[in-house]
Amino acid sequence: MIRRAIGLALAVLVCSAHVGSPDVYYEGNAGPYPVLVIVRLPGVVPGVAEVTVHVTGPAVDRVTLFVNRYDATTAAPPPEDAARAVGDSATFVGKLWVMAGGSNSVTVGVHGSKGTGTAVVPVVAVATRRLPLYRWLGVILGAIGIFLFVGAVSIGGAAVREATLEPGQVPDAAHRRRARLAMAGTGVFVAAMLFGGWTWWNDTDAEFQQRMYRPFTVRASEAQPGQLTFAITDSAWLERHDSSYVNQRGRTQWSPLIPDHGKLMHLFLVADSGLAFAHLHPATTDTDTFRATIPPLPKGRYRVFADIVHGSGFDHTLVTTVDLADSPSPYVPSDSDDAFSGAGGSAILKLGSDTVRVGAPAGLRFVVSGIQPYMGMAGHAVVVRDDGSVFIHLHPMGTISTAAQMVLARGQPMSMGALSDTVSFPYAFPKAGRYYVWVQVKRGGRILTAPYVVVAQ
């Protein structure tokens, strides 16, 4: 009972589309002020999120923050002032209560010499698991429970045995007999209370587990030579139009998918070994099954990561694997924005450092001339830890989905910023290890994909 209770209370929240990478990064503009916003989500809901805002450019007097759920029907909470970081007048830090799980937005207000500007940062907070109870803590809590149980029984017996006696009077046999009956009754009563609490916790825990976020179950296969089929097989999605099914099982009423960068799905193939990689955009007629032409990648097993965004601003990364055979030739991409990199490849961009510190700015900064917009952005990057435990699809504006930002900003248009010869991606590696990084830009009408290996320590 105690183990489940503690586990329930410590349910962890992560950003659902950030596999193994829970922090949210946004780099863009709040009106006339360039900002870098980092949101570290809380460990429970309700819980406290930590927000860091770094402002460059004009002098800033004040930074405000508030968080709101996408479907909130009441007025937004009043903004809270962020405090200036010690020793850094351009950085502000604050804390926000996240009161509801799901698709939320953190709105940053910057007030200074050029007036007031705002930036809307989408965040998705969902419970995904229960943390285990430390054995030593379980032993301590169990010992305290036994002590309290014995104490309650002893108090019940002493009250009946001695409460009516004069000071110094010795209890007779009748008082002792009634005391034993009282102790037995107290023991039964306390045991019944414990059993009721245990049953209640089990029911609450079962309900919590049923409502925990789980990525949709999916399946990928090479149904025909050179053709990839990606199917969402989860009943929560397939039965989304059946309101009775949804209500009876306490499921989420999923909203339809919306395009992100003009695509309903961004699907990535990452080889288990080597640097073979593809960024595809499958077509669909029902948003249940998606199909794409497989590029000429080396045969073998591939990890599959598929990004989708709902009309609520909620985004997922769906994960599975697929075994690919040799692709037939010639290769004709099913989408003009599809791109891939083979097992090797030559680097066209220069990474500042091959080694970065965990939790510190990664320095994903690249220089290339003649950049053209690629799906509305100056570039795209994908980061995958070599064991697949971390995956993130990055843009120069950070880890957020632009479609989600448009939804949560109530349709307010977002600028991708001016193109230059430098492309950077705000990010910090969440844990030590070896990472594969693919950077994609468009130049001369061609999509260029450059692979790198980065070690985070």
Q: What's the total count of β strands?
A: 27
Structural class estimated from helices and strands: alpha+beta
Kindly report the average pLDDT value.
86
Indicate the radius of gyration in whole angstroms: 28 Å
Question: Roughly how many Å apart are the termini?
Answer: 39 Å
Low-confidence stretches: 1-15, 345-351
What is the name of the CATH architecture of the largest domain? Sandwich
CATH superfamily membership of the largest domain = Immunoglobulins
Count of structural domains: 4
Give the biggest sheet.
6 strands, mixed
CATH class of the largest domain: Mainly Beta
Q: Report the total helices.
A: 6
Beta-strand residue percentage = 35-45%
Question: Can you tell me the CATH topology of the largest domain?
Answer: Immunoglobulin-like
**Helicity, in percent?**
10-25%
Q: What's the shape?
A: globular
Could you please describe the fold and organization of this structure?
The chain has 457 residues and is an alpha+beta fold. It has four domains: 128 residues, Immunoglobulin-like, CATH 2.60.40; 77 residues; 127 residues, Immunoglobulin-like (Sandwich), CATH 2.60.40.1220; 112 residues, Sandwich (Immunoglobulin-like). The chain is built from six helices and 27 strands. The strands form six sheets. Strands 20, 22, 23, 24, 26 and 27 form a six-stranded mixed beta sheet that branches. A five-stranded antiparallel beta sheet has the order 1-10-9-5-6. A five-stranded antiparallel beta sheet has the order 2-3-4-8-7, with no helix packed on it. A hairpin with a 6-residue loop joins strand 3 and strand 4. Helix 2 packs antiparallel against helix 3. The two termini are 39 Å apart.
